[in-house]
Amino acid sequence: MCLAALAVVAAAAHADQRPNFTPEERAAILLHGPWPQPMPPDPSNRVSGNPGAVALGRSLFFDKRLSGDGRRSCATCHDPARAFTDGRARSVGVVIVDRNSIALANLRLNRWFGWDGASDSLWAQSIRPILDPKELALTPEELRRRLGSDAALAADYRRLFGASAELSEPEAVLVNVAKALAAWQETIVTGRAAFDAFRDALERGDGGAMARYPAAAQRGLGLFVGKGRCSVCHFGPNFTNGEFDDAGVPHFVEKGRVDTGRHGGIALLKASPFNLFGRWNDDPAKAPGLATRHVEPLHRNWGEFRVPSLRNVARTAPYMHDGSRATLADVVRHYSELDEERLHGIPGRTLLRALRLTPQERADLVAFLETL
Hints:
By secondary structure, the protein is mostly helical.
């Protein structure tokens, strides 16, 4: 047999090579399910789970009157056709902003919101782009005027919140609109993926169902929970620990200006009148805000950004907080060749290490990610 033919045979054999998961790997895989997870109403938002709030929030999400110039809506940067992202490296509001658009899905599983965690509730996070002069750039006063001038919207608002928008303080209208937006966003949940079918088959020992999961994806999964150590940060059914880390991506926005990430986000969170210790939290016990009380900015938080969920990740390119990695292959290559000198943590104590994956291992890891 010629060398070319031998190479073809060897490649075919490798293509169907499936890992034998160790008990430890099997246990780690099972921790990534089951899916979907329970998502109870948000106690800080009295209209969370309310069908009327969901309907109003959905309508407002696509309404360009939520922007100062009437030219953009929430859906401009969070397009349902793009898995609630916009496909840009950095989103465009009134101007180009500093960060990539985060996919909106499975949000009731979060404790912090935004790339820097500057909000501790989904409704507070929904306020931020409305007011931000770089994004929607709308004032509470103008929001109240526009809501009150639309008879149908005004009636929906009054029915839901028991008060007339025109006669309410502008900040109250802003918060209530954000709570309706949050009620709608909470309904955005990713469906079951090929990985979930494999994970459940593994749990029940169904070899036939497991065999339908691609061999490359199985090898990539083995890397994900093993050599790659990806599941240290991307763990659990939503494939994220919900926290923040320095991924070794430069955080200069432009010459002379940096994005401080989590460090600045904590300062914004503490100063926000909309955090869970403020008067707008509908939970009398303020229980969801306990984490906010204790979080403090540390030096290591400089340049840390959200560990995003990996569900639907193949549909949400480009990647990283600044959209600097165009494809999943680029992301995997980044972690494989990571420059550990860029990391801000204490030397020798950071979670991340250069993975030094082979080309085949990188391809397998991408194959796994595509099944999420």
